[in-house]
Amino acid sequence: MYIIRRELITLSGFQIINYNNMETKSFFGENGLTSTSANHYCNLAKEVVRKYQNILANTRFYTTTVKVIGEEKENIISLGCTEQRLEYIKNAIARIAGLNSLTAFFREAMKEKERLNVEANNWKDKEAHADYDRRYAELEAEKPTSPVYLSTEDIIKTWTVGEQEKYLSLEAEAAVYGKYIHEDGALSKARVDMLNKMENPTSVEANGRDTLIYDYAFTVDESDIDKMFFELQAHHRTVQAELNGMKKRIEDIAVADMNKKDDEYRLAYQKWSDKKAEMERELQMLVQNENAKRMELREEVKNLKIVVPNRLQEVFDFLKSL
């Protein structure tokens, strides 16, 4: 079996296959045939073999004659081979064997050359890609994650128990006072209803003989109601102002935290993006080098010459002479 030794060598960090460094028993050499020429001789050998095969297939070791009954004359149908012809038969068989051997060698050499061409087309720097994939995976693992900001609850938890109690109390108190004194609150609606009844102290609900007349008698002086209402409003404003002050502290801390984390994230992400861009440029360079190397390997395979083995040189010379 003819074997090609592929010697791996290193060139600029890339493994390449050196097809020029081959063992003595190889299909290829510096001088020889192209695949096209070898294929031509294979086809020619096929035709020559067919001729010899036809001669051998019609070989007879006896002569056949025929005559008509009643006649003495015999007619020769086919002649058997003579002793001298036996040597030709041996040579024909040897020639077929030689031609088939040469054809088999050429066919195998062409097949190997095609395989080498496929190998050259598919060549890839596996070690470089494995190293790149490893480092790229590490880089992806280092990708900065979006920042998590402090929530109101997070900030409040940093306060003393007294501060937390005060904040919660102010929040609850402001909610209760606001519920009653706001425009749609029960106390606010009662006050507006009182003002309306003062303008219309009597109302009539007409229904024939059953017509009803309502009179409204005020149980609390208007000034007392207004005084209470405005006092409640003032207290609500005071509570809300103090609560807003504490909320402003929370907001300032939250904004400062968000800005700090955003700045850190942007800086980290930019550094990470720069590393990723550098790796992408590295991959492009790797691919370019691989493409260049594949072109080089394809050219080397293309220039491989199929040698004629010494043992089959006479058979090849015979083909060339035809």
Brief characterization of the structure:
This protein is mostly helical and 322 residues long. The chain contains eight helices and eight strands, in the order E-E-E-H-E-E-H-H-H-H-H-E-E-H-E-H.
Textual characterization of the structure:
By secondary structure, the chain is mainly α. It folds into 2 domains: 7-67 and 75-143 and 292-321, no CATH class; 152-286, no CATH class. It has helices at residues 35-57, 83-121, 126-141, 152-156, 161-181, 186-199, 222-302, 313-321, and strands at 7-11, 14-18, 28-29, 64-66, 75-78, 202-205, 212-215, 305-306. The strands form 4 sheets. A two-stranded antiparallel ribbon has the order 1-2. A two-stranded antiparallel ribbon has the order 3-8. The longest helix is centred in the last third of the chain and has 81 residues, at 222-302.
Q: What is the strand arrangement across the widest sheet?
A: 1-2
- Low-confidence segments: 1-25
- Overall structural class, as computed from helix and strand content, comes to mainly alpha
Q: Tell me the count of domains.
A: 2
- Name the helicity range: 55-70%
Strand content range:
5-15%
SSE map:
Blueprint: E1 7-11, E2 14-18, E3 28-29, H1 35-57, E4 64-66, E5 75-78, H2 83-121, H3 126-141, H4 152-156, H5 161-181, H6 186-199, E6 202-205, E7 212-215, H7 222-302, E8 305-306, H8 313-321
Antiparallel strand pairs: 1-2, 3-8, 4-5, 6-7
Helix pairs in contact: 1-2, 2-7, 3-7, 5-7, 6-7
